[in-house]
Amino acid sequence: MDIEKIQGNEMWWGTLGTVRPFPDFSPDVDAHDIQTALVKKDVATLVRILTNRNNAQRQKVAEAFRQVSQKDLSTVLKKALSGPLEDLMLALIMTPAQFDAHRLRQTMEGMGTDEEGLLEVLCSRTGQQLKDIMVAYKQAFGRYLENDLESETSKDFSKLVMALVMKEERNTKGLIDIHLISEDVKTLAAAISGKKTDSAPWIQILTTRSPDHLNRVFLRLELLKGETMEKMVQNHFSGDLKLGLRTLVGCIQNTPLYLAQRLQVSMKKSSIVRGIMVGRSEEDLLCVRREFRKLTNTSLFSTIQKEFKGDLQQALLALCRSEDL
Q: Is the pTM of this model over 0.85?
């Protein structure tokens, strides 16, 4: 995230996150307070500190803790906590790339692959973020993300996943290319107009263009075909590829709405709620909150209050930050 300096103050330029830099921040004070809280088994203090610092500050707290205690904060938290709260606190200690790398690994562990969890990360991240995630994945697990993704997926879905993880926008950023928009509309329309759908152009175009460009393409394609993008994907694709393209189109059109919908249907799954609350807390969680309110007629804050209890509830509410009336 770019930081703009205005009148000597640092502000997060354009951030729509709920977690901001904590004022009067002192990593040494925080490290000392965490050490004391661990001795006293004061979980509320651990939650209060770690949910009220942004990620860059939490990294400094972890380093200060290591200096003062000669121990790794993550290791100590694992011993002190358990269950979903432990998972949430450990997530907060990771860098964003490390967190997403761990989330991707979890989708591929055990029996079967969690395609929806996989797609949430791959479709909602930029090309640069995915490059960082690939590096973090190799560092954490000693494995190549692209190799694991390839072995866990098959056929056209595998082609989509590989294109997503390698995605790089080829159209010039900030420039509206009318000719390319027209060409893309024709190509996408032709691919679903024959007896047999050709998925290759859809995968290629949807993973190599900017969201701004693609939204212009989608608008013109919808006018041409007389149906929504969602309907087109629903009618012309099947299986995991249909799920993948539907998720990708949803993220291109409105990522916060897609995430709000995912929260709505998965509120009882703490791992999904944790992934979105932590993963979007410094990006666009305010937008996710707004979309959730519009979608459910209930605020995300009060929904979390209803669905969770104890320290986990307090931690999630701290990330959510406030009520939407």
A: yes
